[in-house]
Design a protein that fits this description.
single chain; 445 residues; alpha/beta; Lyase, Ornithine Decarboxylase, Chain A, domain 1; TIM Barrel; 2 domains; 9-stranded mixed sheet; 12 helices; 19 strands; binds pyridoxal-5'-phosphate
């Protein structure tokens, strides 16, 4: 793969020897390249923000969020899309400019909305009527006027795994476009002293390699915007078209597209449709997550047990798996990988990379071509920057790996590896269980 260095037996990632990284920081280890993230942000700046007037871009932080990531995104001039109190809290603690934060989520709590208002978050993307009522109540109590967008369900699904398509009619996200519903919430917002409705948002799905669903959803949004203008006199100032730009994971996938592949058709459709409808073109916002950070990350593992089942397959187990990367089990996501300490050796085996969890479904990669592998080899799984660290769990009580950021060729720890003590941090043993006289009991019958 493109990360290999022909003159060195070890795999080089962003000018760092991955085998040394594994040795110095231990495995499993998430490794993230600052330069790669910045290159993606630059592409968005040059081909969206600078190319088109009245545009904004927010990074969807659910893909990967740490305080250091907030700093990178702030430096790059992008906004931040958060989806929970925890993501918002991370941005607050990183001193991220709050006016550039957009707060999403289909079930925000009263406390989360209060936190958002107390910190003057830039936009609340309101998903439902229940949330609108809560927001109105909080804003009134605090004598604030809160800027919002309504998330609509455009009834357009993205062509992707069913668990990451979101814009279809049968979706838990967004306000349905049924006659009467959207008009009533827009009217309520226009009548409110505490709500400042700026426009609408949709997100059709994730890991998309086509742009048809964005185009179709824009057409739906423009029709709605036109109807609301004609019926209620409501002028839409902002349209947020969500994220979803896909990245390549294996040779079977299409190559990752540049930002312009997605942006130009989005902007062309917006220009055409708004002009056709005799409407002013609103500020356009995009919020990619995976596309910005996915290819900026790899995960390093140490290979452990090797089990060959004659005429069936050879299982190689790594020292992590489902808890640090649940995507293969969740979405049948596919990844590519290389044996990092044998990067220039001939590929002569086909093996299956298994995780160490008590789940048969904990398989990271089926049928990976490798050199002759041995226990103790280092495996680098590619393009794990998005939805790996952020989705990690402690299943089977595995401590979560650390995260190393490479900046100008220098690795630095930005998240420490969890220790066993961390697993017990929040636990209490009730007093009545703390004095069990078990010595007399035998283990068994
Ligand atoms: C509202 C919203 N915006 C943006 C994103 C980011 O998606 P992606 O990482 O595919 O770009 C998501 C993903 O679920 C989302 O729900």
């Amino acid at each position: 793969m493109y990360l290999q260095n022909q003159n060195n037996a070890n795999l080089i990632f962003d000018n760092c020897d991955t085998v040394k990284l594994a040795k110095n920081f231990g495995t499993p280890l998430y490794v993230v390249s600052e330069d790669r993230i910045k290159n993606k942000c630059k592409d968005i700046r040059e081909n969206f923000l600078m190319e088109y007037p009245n545009t904004k871009a927010a990074y969807a932080s659910k893909a990967f969020l740490t305080m250091a990531m907030c700093k990178i995104i702030e430096q790059e001039g992008l906004g931040l899309d958060v989806v929970s109190g925890g993501e918002l809290y991370t941005a607050i603690k990183a001193d991220f400019p709050m006016e550039k934060v957009m707060f999403h989520g289909n079930n925000k709590s009263y406390e989360e909305l209060t936190l958002a208002l107390d910190n003057n978050v830039g936009r609340i993307i309101v998903d439902n009527i229940y949330e609108l009522d809560m927001l109105e109540d909080i804003a009134k109590k605090k004598s604030k006027k809160v800027k919002i967008l309504f998330r609509i369900t455009p009834e357009v699904g993205g062509k992707t795994h069913e668990y990451i398509t979101t814009g279809q009619k049968d979706s838990k996200f967004g306000i349905p476009l049924e006659k009467g519903i959207i008009e009533s919430v827009v009217k309520a917002s226009m009548d409110s002293n505490n709500i400042d409705l700026k426009g609408f948002h949709f997100h059709v799905g994730s890991q998309l390699f086509e742009i048809d669903s964005h185009v179709a959803a824009i057409k739906v949004a423009v029709k709605l915007i036109k109807d609301l203008k004609d019926e209620l006199g409501f002028a839409t100032e902002e349209l947020n078209t969500g994220g979803g730009f896909g990245i390549s994971h294996t040779e079977e996938d299409e190559e990752t597209k540049p930002a312009s592949f997605f942006i130009n058709p989005i902007m062309k459709t917006i220009e055409q449709e708004f002009t056709k409808a005799d409407l002013d073109i609103p500020t356009v916002i995009i919020e990619p997550g995976r596309w910005i950070v996915g290819e900026a990350g790899i995960t390093l593992y140490t290979l452990g047990s090797i089990k060959e089942i004659s005429n069936v397959r050879k299982y190689i187990s790594v020292d992590g798996g489902l808890p640090d990367n649940p995507r293969p089990a969740l979405y049948k996501a596919k990844y590519d990988a290389a044996v990092a300490n044998k990067a220039n050796q001939k590929l002569e085996e086909v093996v299956t990379i298994a995780g160490k969890c008590c789940e048969s479904g904990d398989i990271l990669i089926w049928d990976l071509k490798t050199p002759k592998v041995e226990s103790g080899d280092i495996l680098a799984v590619f393009n794990t920057g998005a939805y790996n660290y952020s989705m990690a769990s402690n299943y089977n009580r595995l401590p979560r790996p650390g995260v190393v950021l490479i900046s100008k060729g220098q690795p630095e720890l930005i998240v420490e590896r969890e220790k066993y003590e961390d697993l017990l941090n929040k636990e209490r043993i009730p007093e009545h269980l703390d004095n069990i006289q078990s010595k007399k009991l035998t283990f068994g019958a």
